[in-house]
C-alpha cells in the first residue's frame, strides 16, 4: 500500500542519524602536532605550481607540508599516495564519511582499502574562520571529484587538456616515469584545497562559489606516512564562475616541505598501522 500524506510527512520529519559516529577515532592532539612543527627539520622543498598545471612533491613521514596562496585567489586539487606503494592513496569518500563534507584542523586524509589509515593530518588552516555559510558552502571539500576532460567533453564538447585530472596525470607521469596510460588510473578524487562548495538546498546539486582565499592564506599538514603528493592549480582560478577555463584569472600555488623534527623519536607519535581487519571477507572457512 502506498504511504499516506501523514506517513510521508512523518518520515520527512524523522531526525537524521550519523552514519559513522567518529568519537572512537584515534584522538588528534593538534597542540602536540603544532609543537612538533616548531621544531621541524630543514626545508626540503619549495615549489611553485604554475597556473593550470600540476607538480609532484615528496614528504617524509613525520614531516610537514604547507600549501599557500600566492598573488591572487586560487584553488588547488590535491592527490596523495604512499610514496613506496601507489596503490595506497587518498580515499576522499571515506574521509567524507568520517569527518564531513569539508575538512580542517584536527581532521585527517584517510587512505584507501585495505589500509584505511591516516595519511596526513591538518594542523593549520587560515580559512577555518569561514565555517558554513548561509548557502551551505564551506572550504576544503571532499565532495567534488576534480575537473576532467571527459566530463568537459560530455557537457561542452571539445578536448580541454588543462583540467585538474589531466594536470595531475601529467605531473605523476613526469615524476615517476610511468606512461600516461599507467599514471592516469592512479589519479583519484581530491581534496579541493581552498575551494568553496556545497549542495543546493532545492535540487541537491554540487555548487561552487568564489573562494575566500587570499595571498598568504595556507593549509598545513603533518605527514603520517611517507607521501607522494601532487597539486594542481585549477584552471577555474577561484572557481567563482567556471572551471576548465582559459579565461578565468589563475595564480600559482606554493608548496613547502619540511623535514621531521630531530627529536621525533622522543614523542608519542608513531606511524599509523595499517587497518587490522583480517581480510577474509567471510571466506575463512574455505
Can you put this structure into words, describing what you see?
The structure is a single chain. This protein is an alpha+beta fold and 286 residues long. The protein has one domain (49-260). Helix content is 18%, strand content 27%. It contains six helices and 13 strands. It has helices at 5-13, 30-38, 92-99, 149-156, 164-176, 180-183, and strands at residues 43-49, 54-59, 64-69, 76-82, 85-89, 108-110, 118-125, 138-141, 191-199, 206-209, 218-223, 227-233, 253-258. The strands form two sheets. Strands 2, 4, 5, 8, 9, 10 and 12 form a seven-stranded antiparallel beta sheet that branches. Strands 1-13-3-11-7-6 form a six-stranded antiparallel beta sheet. The longest helix has 13 residues, at 164-176. It starts with a helix and ends in a 28-residue tail after the last strand. The model has no long low-confidence stretch (mean pLDDT 94).
What keyword list fits this structure?
single chain; 286 residues; alpha+beta; 6-stranded antiparallel β-sheet
